[in-house]
Amino acid sequence: ARGAHGGFHSESPNEIDGMTDDDKLHDEAEEIRKETAAEAPELAEHDRVAELEKALEEATNKALYAAAETQNVRRRLEAEKVQASNYAATAFARDMLAIKDHLDRALAAVTDELKADKVASNFLAGIEATSRELEQAFARNGITRITAIGELLDPHRHQAMVEIPSGEAEPGTIVEEMQPGYMIKDRLLRPALVAVAKAAG
């Protein structure tokens, strides 16, 4: 090209195709900005979905925990209700056992002479009937007598009061019952008071 004074000069390398390097950089930056702007709504929507999914997961976990806790409370209350129903009569049953003890002691003290007496025998028959009715009432309410004589001592059901030397019974075996014990359902109402065998020495 011929210059203003008629001379020649070469075009700047930065002006090839009529566009400078600065122009190209500007255009590339603008293109990136446009692409980013176009993608921005999609990125924002993706973040929002992830945030909602996380919130939903947390809410679900809390709901599951609350449901499990509610179920546990319900089961505990039901168990307590059953326990209360099963053992509500415990104190009353212990009082009735004292009456049964008196009846049994009275019957055990009856002599053959009294049994032969007509008036006394009628009276004794009434005591025996009362004792049987008590036993039936106990059975209806889940109150059962503990087996003792011949059993090995069980500290959960028997209370050893004395040891008796024996050459026949195995040591620790119950050989005498001083007072009967009772269970109410699967709970101890009162232990049997017993004597246990020990090795004869």
Overall spatial form: elongated
Number of helices: 4
Largest sheet: 3 strands, antiparallel
Tell me the strand percentage band.
Answer: 15-25%
In angstroms, what separates the terminal alpha carbons? 140 Å
Unreliable residue stretches: 1-16
Question: Mean pLDDT, nearest integer?
Answer: 81
Count the strands? Answer: 6
Order of helices and strands: HHHHEEEEEE
Helix content: 55-70%
Q: Which strand order does the major sheet show?
A: 1-4-5
Structural class: alpha+beta
* Radius of gyration using CA atoms only: 49 Å
Concise synopsis of the structure shown:
With 201 residues, the chain is an alpha+beta fold.
Would you kindly provide a written description of the structure presented here, covering whatever features stand out?
The chain is of the alpha+beta class and about 200 residues long. Helix content is about 55%, strand content about 15%. The protein is built from four helices and six strands, in the order ααααββββββ. Helix 2 runs antiparallel to helix 4. The protein is elongated, with a radius of gyration of 49 Å. The termini are far apart. The N terminus is likely disordered.
Q: Which features would summarize this protein structure in a list?
A:
single chain, 201 residues, alpha+beta, 3-stranded antiparallel beta sheet, 3-stranded mixed beta sheet, 6 strands, elongated, disordered N terminus
